Amino acid sequence: MKMGEDVRGAHSERPQKLVLCVLCGLPAAGKSTFARALRHWLQQELGWAVGVVAYDDVMPEAVLEKASASPLPSQWKLFRQELLKFLEHFLLAVINGCQMSAPPSKTEAMWKDFITCLKDQDLISSAAVEAQALYPLTKTAVSRPLLLILDDNFYYQSMRYEVYQLARKYSSGFCQLFLDCALETCLQRNAQRPRPLPAETIHQMGNKIEKPNPEKNAWEHHSLAVQSPACASEARLKLTDLLITALENPIKHVEENLEQKETDRLIGSTNILHQADQTLRRIVSQTMKEAKDSSPPGSPVLGTLQARTLEWVAISFS
Protein backbone atom coordinates (compact mmCIF):
# COMPACT_ATOMS: atom_id res chain seq x y z
CA MET A 1 0.00 0.00 0.00
CA LYS A 2 1.29 3.45 -0.90
CA MET A 3 1.54 6.23 1.63
CA GLY A 4 -1.31 8.67 1.30
CA GLU A 5 -3.76 6.30 -0.40
CA ASP A 6 -7.20 7.45 0.67
CA VAL A 7 -10.83 6.46 0.66
CA ARG A 8 -13.36 8.88 -0.71
CA GLY A 9 -16.41 6.80 -1.27
CA ALA A 10 -18.83 4.49 0.36
CA HIS A 11 -18.92 2.84 3.73
CA SER A 12 -16.44 0.11 4.51
CA GLU A 13 -17.60 -3.44 3.80
CA ARG A 14 -17.30 -4.56 7.42
CA PRO A 15 -17.58 -2.75 10.75
CA GLN A 16 -14.32 -1.09 11.64
CA LYS A 17 -12.70 -2.36 14.83
CA LEU A 18 -11.15 0.41 16.86
CA VAL A 19 -10.00 1.11 20.40
CA LEU A 20 -9.55 4.34 22.32
CA CYS A 21 -6.61 3.85 24.67
CA VAL A 22 -5.96 6.32 27.49
CA LEU A 23 -2.26 6.53 28.35
CA CYS A 24 -1.97 8.26 31.72
CA GLY A 25 0.64 9.00 34.35
CA LEU A 26 2.72 11.76 35.87
CA PRO A 27 4.67 14.24 33.72
CA ALA A 28 8.04 12.78 32.63
CA ALA A 29 6.90 9.23 33.42
CA GLY A 30 7.92 8.24 29.88
CA LYS A 31 4.46 8.18 28.29
CA SER A 32 5.43 9.62 24.92
CA THR A 33 8.45 7.34 24.55
CA PHE A 34 6.30 4.36 25.52
CA ALA A 35 3.53 5.38 23.07
CA ARG A 36 5.95 5.59 20.14
CA ALA A 37 7.46 2.21 20.97
CA LEU A 38 4.00 0.64 21.35
CA ARG A 39 2.89 2.10 18.02
CA HIS A 40 5.91 0.70 16.19
CA TRP A 41 5.53 -2.73 17.80
CA LEU A 42 1.78 -3.05 17.05
CA GLN A 43 2.30 -1.99 13.45
CA GLN A 44 5.12 -4.44 12.90
CA GLU A 45 3.88 -7.43 14.92
CA LEU A 46 0.08 -7.23 14.63
CA GLY A 47 -0.38 -5.13 11.50
CA TRP A 48 -2.63 -2.65 13.30
CA ALA A 49 -3.10 0.98 12.37
CA VAL A 50 -2.03 3.09 15.36
CA GLY A 51 -2.37 6.78 15.99
CA VAL A 52 -0.83 8.61 18.93
CA VAL A 53 -2.47 11.89 19.90
CA ALA A 54 -0.19 13.63 22.39
CA TYR A 55 -2.12 16.43 24.04
CA ASP A 56 1.03 18.51 24.52
CA ASP A 57 1.57 18.48 20.74
CA VAL A 58 -1.93 19.67 19.92
CA MET A 59 -2.71 22.17 22.68
CA PRO A 60 -2.06 25.85 21.84
CA GLU A 61 1.37 27.06 22.90
CA ALA A 62 -0.06 29.82 25.09
CA VAL A 63 -2.07 27.34 27.13
CA LEU A 64 0.96 25.13 27.69
CA GLU A 65 2.96 28.12 28.91
CA LYS A 66 0.25 29.02 31.42
CA ALA A 67 0.07 25.42 32.59
CA SER A 68 3.82 25.43 33.21
CA ALA A 69 3.65 28.54 35.35
CA SER A 70 0.53 27.82 37.40
CA PRO A 71 -2.17 25.22 38.12
CA LEU A 72 -4.12 24.22 35.02
CA PRO A 73 -6.63 26.99 34.18
CA SER A 74 -10.25 26.44 33.21
CA GLN A 75 -9.23 27.26 29.64
CA TRP A 76 -7.22 24.05 29.61
CA LYS A 77 -10.40 22.06 30.29
CA LEU A 78 -12.17 23.78 27.39
CA PHE A 79 -9.34 22.90 25.02
CA ARG A 80 -9.41 19.27 26.22
CA GLN A 81 -13.11 19.09 25.43
CA GLU A 82 -12.50 20.65 22.03
CA LEU A 83 -9.87 18.03 21.26
CA LEU A 84 -12.39 15.30 22.12
CA LYS A 85 -14.70 16.90 19.54
CA PHE A 86 -11.94 16.65 16.96
CA LEU A 87 -11.49 12.98 17.84
CA GLU A 88 -15.22 12.43 17.50
CA HIS A 89 -15.16 13.81 13.94
CA PHE A 90 -12.33 11.43 13.11
CA LEU A 91 -14.14 8.46 14.69
CA LEU A 92 -17.26 9.19 12.68
CA ALA A 93 -15.27 9.19 9.46
CA VAL A 94 -13.52 5.92 10.34
CA ILE A 95 -16.73 4.17 11.37
CA ASN A 96 -18.62 5.32 8.28
CA GLY A 97 -15.70 4.83 5.90
CA CYS A 98 -15.99 8.36 4.56
CA GLN A 99 -14.10 11.64 4.63
CA MET A 100 -13.63 13.55 7.86
CA SER A 101 -15.48 16.85 8.16
CA ALA A 102 -14.17 19.90 9.97
CA PRO A 103 -16.07 21.10 13.06
CA PRO A 104 -18.19 24.21 12.39
CA SER A 105 -16.34 26.14 15.09
CA LYS A 106 -12.82 25.37 16.22
CA THR A 107 -9.55 26.80 17.48
CA GLU A 108 -7.62 27.05 14.24
CA ALA A 109 -4.18 26.42 15.74
CA MET A 110 -5.41 23.26 17.47
CA TRP A 111 -7.18 21.96 14.39
CA LYS A 112 -4.08 22.54 12.25
CA ASP A 113 -1.91 20.59 14.71
CA PHE A 114 -4.52 17.83 14.94
CA ILE A 115 -4.62 17.45 11.14
CA THR A 116 -0.81 17.42 11.01
CA CYS A 117 -0.78 14.72 13.72
CA LEU A 118 -3.09 12.47 11.68
CA LYS A 119 -1.26 13.11 8.40
CA ASP A 120 2.14 12.32 9.91
CA GLN A 121 0.81 8.92 11.02
CA ASP A 122 -0.78 8.08 7.65
CA LEU A 123 -4.36 8.28 8.97
CA ILE A 124 -5.55 11.04 6.63
CA SER A 125 -4.32 11.77 3.14
CA SER A 126 -1.04 13.68 2.92
CA ALA A 127 -2.66 15.73 0.16
CA ALA A 128 -5.17 17.21 2.62
CA VAL A 129 -4.76 20.85 3.57
CA GLU A 130 -5.88 22.37 6.85
CA ALA A 131 -8.37 24.83 5.36
CA GLN A 132 -10.48 22.37 3.41
CA ALA A 133 -13.94 21.17 4.54
CA LEU A 134 -13.41 17.41 4.02
CA TYR A 135 -10.35 15.29 4.75
CA PRO A 136 -9.93 11.91 2.99
CA LEU A 137 -8.84 9.04 5.21
CA THR A 138 -6.12 6.64 4.13
CA LYS A 139 -6.76 2.95 3.51
CA THR A 140 -4.60 2.27 6.55
CA ALA A 141 -7.13 4.03 8.77
CA VAL A 142 -10.15 2.06 7.57
CA SER A 143 -8.84 -1.33 6.51
CA ARG A 144 -7.05 -2.47 9.68
CA PRO A 145 -7.83 -2.63 13.39
CA LEU A 146 -7.24 0.90 14.65
CA LEU A 147 -5.81 1.87 18.03
CA LEU A 148 -5.90 5.54 19.04
CA ILE A 149 -3.58 6.27 21.95
CA LEU A 150 -4.41 9.46 23.85
CA ASP A 151 -1.23 10.58 25.59
CA ASP A 152 -1.75 12.91 28.54
CA ASN A 153 -1.53 12.99 32.34
CA PHE A 154 -5.27 12.22 32.82
CA TYR A 155 -4.65 12.44 36.54
CA TYR A 156 -8.35 12.80 37.40
CA GLN A 157 -10.75 9.92 36.88
CA SER A 158 -13.27 12.35 35.36
CA MET A 159 -10.82 13.18 32.55
CA ARG A 160 -10.56 9.54 31.56
CA TYR A 161 -14.30 8.98 31.90
CA GLU A 162 -14.92 11.55 29.16
CA VAL A 163 -12.93 9.35 26.77
CA TYR A 164 -14.85 6.29 27.95
CA GLN A 165 -18.12 8.08 27.19
CA LEU A 166 -16.89 8.83 23.67
CA ALA A 167 -16.00 5.17 23.14
CA ARG A 168 -19.39 4.09 24.47
CA LYS A 169 -21.21 6.56 22.21
CA TYR A 170 -19.75 4.87 19.12
CA SER A 171 -19.55 1.31 20.47
CA SER A 172 -15.76 1.32 20.32
CA GLY A 173 -13.25 -0.51 22.45
CA PHE A 174 -11.75 1.26 25.45
CA CYS A 175 -8.75 0.59 27.67
CA GLN A 176 -6.36 2.40 30.00
CA LEU A 177 -2.62 2.16 30.47
CA PHE A 178 -1.20 3.73 33.60
CA LEU A 179 2.54 4.32 33.37
CA ASP A 180 3.67 3.70 36.93
CA CYS A 181 6.84 5.68 37.55
CA ALA A 182 8.30 6.82 40.88
CA LEU A 183 7.79 10.49 41.68
CA GLU A 184 11.52 11.08 42.22
CA THR A 185 12.31 9.59 38.81
CA CYS A 186 9.74 11.87 37.17
CA LEU A 187 11.26 14.89 38.92
CA GLN A 188 14.75 13.97 37.74
CA ARG A 189 13.65 13.48 34.14
CA ASN A 190 11.62 16.67 34.19
CA ALA A 191 14.63 18.68 35.36
CA GLN A 192 16.55 17.52 32.27
CA ARG A 193 13.91 18.73 29.82
CA PRO A 194 14.40 21.90 27.75
CA ARG A 195 11.16 23.30 29.20
CA PRO A 196 10.65 21.63 32.57
CA LEU A 197 7.48 21.96 34.60
CA PRO A 198 7.82 23.44 38.09
CA ALA A 199 8.65 20.64 40.51
CA GLU A 200 5.76 21.78 42.69
CA THR A 201 3.32 21.08 39.83
CA ILE A 202 4.50 17.48 39.59
CA HIS A 203 4.31 17.11 43.38
CA GLN A 204 0.72 18.38 43.30
CA MET A 205 -0.21 15.95 40.53
CA GLY A 206 1.41 13.15 42.48
CA ASN A 207 -0.84 13.95 45.44
CA LYS A 208 -3.99 14.35 43.34
CA ILE A 209 -3.61 11.56 40.80
CA GLU A 210 -6.47 9.05 40.74
CA LYS A 211 -5.09 5.81 39.40
CA PRO A 212 -7.39 3.47 37.46
CA ASN A 213 -9.39 1.39 39.91
CA PRO A 214 -11.05 -1.56 38.12
CA GLU A 215 -12.32 -3.04 41.40
CA LYS A 216 -14.30 0.12 42.19
CA ASN A 217 -15.28 1.29 38.70
CA ALA A 218 -16.65 -1.24 36.24
CA TRP A 219 -15.90 1.07 33.30
CA GLU A 220 -12.17 0.86 34.18
CA HIS A 221 -12.17 -2.92 33.86
CA HIS A 222 -9.77 -2.92 30.90
CA SER A 223 -6.85 -1.24 32.65
CA LEU A 224 -3.22 -2.11 33.17
CA ALA A 225 -0.47 -0.55 35.26
CA VAL A 226 2.81 -0.69 33.36
CA GLN A 227 6.17 -0.21 35.02
CA SER A 228 8.42 2.35 33.40
CA PRO A 229 10.31 1.34 31.38
CA ALA A 230 8.25 -1.66 30.26
CA CYS A 231 10.59 -4.05 28.51
CA ALA A 232 9.83 -7.38 30.17
CA SER A 233 8.19 -10.03 28.01
CA GLU A 234 5.60 -10.67 30.73
CA ALA A 235 4.46 -7.04 30.58
CA ARG A 236 4.25 -7.24 26.80
CA LEU A 237 2.05 -10.34 26.96
CA LYS A 238 -0.33 -8.66 29.42
CA LEU A 239 -0.41 -5.56 27.28
CA THR A 240 -1.18 -7.52 24.11
CA ASP A 241 -3.94 -9.40 25.89
CA LEU A 242 -5.47 -6.16 27.17
CA LEU A 243 -5.48 -4.47 23.76
CA ILE A 244 -6.91 -7.49 21.92
CA THR A 245 -9.58 -7.93 24.60
CA ALA A 246 -10.58 -4.26 24.30
CA LEU A 247 -10.66 -4.56 20.50
CA GLU A 248 -12.85 -7.68 20.52
CA ASN A 249 -15.18 -6.40 23.25
CA PRO A 250 -16.40 -2.93 22.30
CA ILE A 251 -18.57 -1.05 24.76
CA LYS A 252 -22.27 -1.56 24.16
CA HIS A 253 -24.08 1.67 23.49
CA VAL A 254 -27.52 1.51 25.10
CA GLU A 255 -29.94 4.13 23.82
CA GLU A 256 -32.14 5.66 26.49
CA ASN A 257 -35.76 4.78 25.74
CA LEU A 258 -37.51 7.75 27.32
CA GLU A 259 -40.98 6.45 26.49
CA GLN A 260 -40.27 3.12 28.17
CA LYS A 261 -38.74 4.88 31.19
CA GLU A 262 -41.90 6.96 31.59
CA THR A 263 -44.07 3.84 31.29
CA ASP A 264 -41.99 2.09 33.95
CA ARG A 265 -42.29 5.14 36.20
CA LEU A 266 -46.09 5.17 35.88
CA ILE A 267 -46.25 1.44 36.56
CA GLY A 268 -44.08 1.95 39.62
CA SER A 269 -46.27 4.78 40.86
CA THR A 270 -49.41 2.67 40.36
CA ASN A 271 -47.85 -0.18 42.29
CA ILE A 272 -46.96 2.14 45.17
CA LEU A 273 -50.55 3.48 45.31
CA HIS A 274 -51.91 -0.05 45.23
CA GLN A 275 -49.66 -1.09 48.12
CA ALA A 276 -50.66 2.02 50.09
CA ASP A 277 -54.34 1.24 49.44
CA GLN A 278 -53.96 -2.30 50.74
CA THR A 279 -52.06 -1.14 53.81
CA LEU A 280 -54.61 1.56 54.57
CA ARG A 281 -57.49 -0.89 54.23
CA ARG A 282 -55.85 -3.24 56.73
CA ILE A 283 -55.32 -0.39 59.20
CA VAL A 284 -58.92 0.79 58.82
CA SER A 285 -60.24 -2.75 59.21
CA GLN A 286 -58.20 -3.32 62.35
CA THR A 287 -59.22 0.04 63.81
CA MET A 288 -62.91 -0.64 63.16
CA LYS A 289 -62.65 -4.09 64.75
CA GLU A 290 -60.99 -2.71 67.88
CA ALA A 291 -63.56 0.09 68.15
CA LYS A 292 -66.42 -2.37 67.70
CA ASP A 293 -65.04 -4.70 70.38
CA SER A 294 -64.65 -1.86 72.90
CA SER A 295 -67.95 -0.03 72.22
CA PRO A 296 -71.50 -1.25 72.94
CA PRO A 297 -73.84 -1.89 69.97
CA GLY A 298 -75.42 1.27 68.59
CA SER A 299 -72.78 3.49 70.22
CA PRO A 300 -72.58 6.98 68.58
CA VAL A 301 -68.77 6.80 68.91
CA LEU A 302 -68.66 3.82 66.56
CA GLY A 303 -70.91 5.56 64.00
CA THR A 304 -68.79 8.70 64.06
CA LEU A 305 -65.56 6.67 63.62
CA GLN A 306 -67.03 4.85 60.63
CA ALA A 307 -68.10 8.08 58.93
CA ARG A 308 -64.75 9.83 59.48
CA THR A 309 -62.81 6.79 58.32
CA LEU A 310 -64.78 6.58 55.08
CA GLU A 311 -64.28 10.33 54.56
CA TRP A 312 -60.51 9.98 55.14
CA VAL A 313 -60.26 7.11 52.65
CA ALA A 314 -62.19 9.07 50.02
CA ILE A 315 -59.92 12.12 50.39
CA SER A 316 -56.71 10.06 50.35
CA PHE A 317 -57.47 8.39 47.01
CA SER A 318 -59.39 11.15 45.26
Strand order of the largest sheet: 3-7-2-8-9
Helix content bin: 40-55%
Write the H/E string, N to C.
EEHEHHHEHEEHEHEHHEHHH
What is the average per-residue confidence, as pLDDT, rounded to a whole number?
A: 81
DSSP strand content: 5-15%
Low-confidence stretches: 1-13
Work out the helix count. Answer: 12
- Form type: elongated
Structural class: alpha/beta
Major sheet details = 5 strands, parallel
How many E strands? 9
Descriptive overview:
With 318 residues, the protein is of the alpha/beta class. The chain is built from 12 helices and 9 strands. The chain has helices at residues 31-45, 55-58, 61-69, 74-96, 108-120, 139-143, 157-169, 183-191, 199-208, 233-248, 258-294, 300-316, and strands at 6-7, 18-24, 49-54, 100-101, 134-135, 137-138, 146-151, 173-180, 223-227. The strands form 3 sheets. It has a 5-stranded parallel β-sheet. A two-stranded antiparallel ribbon has the order 1-6. The longest helix is centred in the C-terminal third of the chain and has 37 residues, at 258-294. The chain is elongated, with a radius of gyration of 30 Å. The termini are far apart. InterPro entries: KTI12/PSTK, L-seryl-tRNA_Sec_kinase_euk, P-loop_NTPase, Ser-tRNA(Sec)_kinase. One of its GO terms (molecular function) is tRNA binding.
